[in-house]
Amino acid sequence: MRRFAFFICLLFTTAAHAQVAIDAGTAVLIDPGEPGPIQKAARDLASDMQAVFGKPVRLTHDRAGASATTICVAFSRNRPRGVARPAGWEVLQMKVVANPWPGSPVRQAIVLTGSDIRGTIYAIYEFSRRFLKVDPFYWWTDHTPPQSGRVVLPANLGARDGSPTFRYRGWFMNDEDLMTAWRPGSHERSGISMATWDRVFEALLRSKGNMIIPNTFVFPYEPAVRAAADRGLVISQHHMEPLGLNVYQWPDDKPYTLDMLTAAWKCAVSQYPRDIEIVWTVGLRGRYDRPFWRDTPDVPTSREGKAKLIREAVDRQIAIVRNGWPHPNPKFIMNSWMEGSALMRDGLLKLPPEVTRVWADDGAGLLQDGGQISRGQGIYFHTGVIGGNANNFSERVPIERIHRELGRAARAGATEYMLLNPANIRPHVMSTRAVMDVAWNAGFSQPADWLTRWCREEFGEGAASAVERCYRAYHEAPARYGEREDETIADDFYHQLGRDLLVRIMRRDESMPVRFRFLKVSTYPGYTSRVVNMCRQAEPRWNEAARLAEEARPLVPVGRREFFQAHIATQVDLHRHSNLMLRDNAEAALPGASVLSQQVSVEAAEREARAVLDALRKAEYDKWAGFYTLGDWFVDIPLTLQLAEACLVQLRGERLSAAHQATLARAERLLKEDTSHVYIKIKAYQKGQKVQFCTGQ
């Protein structure tokens, strides 16, 4: 009898540790009582399996309808005896169990669970990534997983990830001009279509994020807020929108005073759905992400007085949430952005103990904490950003900088909050994924290993080395205006500078532009020659990057060449031709240049601007048609081209038409950093909605 019992025990032990294979006949089991966000992730898993196996996969809610080998998503239901949920925050677990439910048809269950709802969601998506080879950003990179009739899982599958490095890890979908024009959602009362929003939420969850700020200047009751929460995501707010107050839609007839703001904050809190999870942002900024004293009357003139006013606003905001929000122990953060960052760094602004201080980077990946970052704090990081020297169409932040700066925050224990601004996602998909990987596990690999793996996964083993050389050349190539690693020209800046130079040629204005003083020159001749020299020095570097791209292209598998074009070749050409355009405009603007030489240079600049547009259009294949050009409202490359055309008309001695004069006026307005016309387009779906005011408790 003992020998028989031993044999049975050995049989079950062997079955539990044998390799497990899944195929199109493998069912996905999830109880209908599991939370909605997990249900959605389970449907994504079935879709992933169909993409791999080439056939529909059965998603069942009943054990009786399961298969001999079944993938079981089990948070609160269907967990086999002996399978406990792991402890901790967002911990995922995958485990194979033999004969999980005696009497059912299931002989082996691959159990996906977690310590909480998001831990279970991460288990689902990690299973897809690890075993089905589904790229977490597959929809944004057009990366279909390898097809197979059968996938064999490793023996002794018992994978478990511990709690993430950063507790809150999310995205701020900011300056969303490209996505708004490409997939508008005005018919759904949303700037971006809800189907596209779901793709954003999916990618965020697949990359193990847990928090989102769904666009700039949104009202708390907008559908994207509800949809994000229904996906299991935490909602947060931007630094210029404390407590979710949409200051962009502040009524012009209402004074921007602390008392009026208090009434508006109360209304904003009351407008959020009561059942969602929120990390509350506190602070004080002006209406258009500018210092509050430009909008608020009777502000103290001293820095100490301004710090005191910010602190009073923060105290009021905390009280509003504590009094008006039904959930206990609310979480508060404050992004130390611009003047707030300086006041905190200098010790003038001190936050209440329950508020997490969040240090921002400079838009190019360098944290602006001055060495003060410490335990219990957080960070606000950018892979995409708009405005001046910024990148809207292309990668800017090298992988090494991401690992170094996030790693520095992690070592300091500043891991409570990590907000990433990925702008329109697709142009910055590599650096965005890198940030999310480090935020989940800050010690998992070295930056060189990460880039090598990315190149291998996205472009194949045979092309990986050549593609990695492209990326490294790309990040070394930009024109440099200073010694710091972030003092390089990004894609927006070529056109800001190029248009400034064209306007000065047309206006015969040789004053030094104040906003470009960071070029470290104080005279107009110094300004123009500095730009010429920067671009000339960068030219051979961009030519080398282009050469490496063409060398790598034939090594990339045919199915990945379109993404190679969009993410590497287009980005290289965008910069290469923009650099030449800027050089030509700067040569035309040199003091003493003849009208004939100016005309030749501006004609060359016009050709380069057309080449920039051609490069972007090469990335607009299939579903991406119009992505880069329909909503190019912030950088506005067509405006650069139109201004060059107007300048040529004037240089030829012809009269400017009304259209030419309008182009000149629009360029001058953008040079004053007036982007109001852009947000009128982006926020058109709000159709006149304005901030509301609540005076009661």
| CATH homologous superfamily designation of the largest domain | Glycosyl hydrolase family 115
Our count of helices gives 21
Q: Within the largest sheet, what's the order of strands?
A: 13-12-9-18-17-16-15-14
Sheet with the most strands?
8 strands, parallel
Offer a concise description of the structure.
The protein has 697 residues and is α/β, with parallel strands linked by helices. The chain has 3 domains: 2-161, Chitobiase, domain 2 (2-Layer Sandwich), CATH 3.30.379.10; 168-444, Alpha-Beta Barrel (TIM Barrel), CATH 3.20.20.520; 474-625 and 635-674, no CATH class.
Structure description:
With 697 residues, this protein is of the alpha/beta class. Helices cover 45% and strands 10% of the residues. The protein has helices spanning 2-17, 36-53, 117-131, 138-141, 177-182, 194-206, 223-230, 258-271, 303-324, 339-345, 399-412, 429-440, 447-459, 461-476, 491-507, 524-552, 561-589, 595-617, 637-651, 658-671, 676-682; strands at residues 20-22, 27-30, 59-60, 69-73, 92-98, 108-114, 151-153, 160-161, 168-172, 184-185, 190-192, 211-213, 234-235, 279-281, 331-336, 355-360, 378-382, 417-421. The chain has an eight-stranded parallel β-sheet. The longest helix has 29 residues, at 524-552. It is globular and about 90 Å long. The N and C termini lie far apart (74 Å).
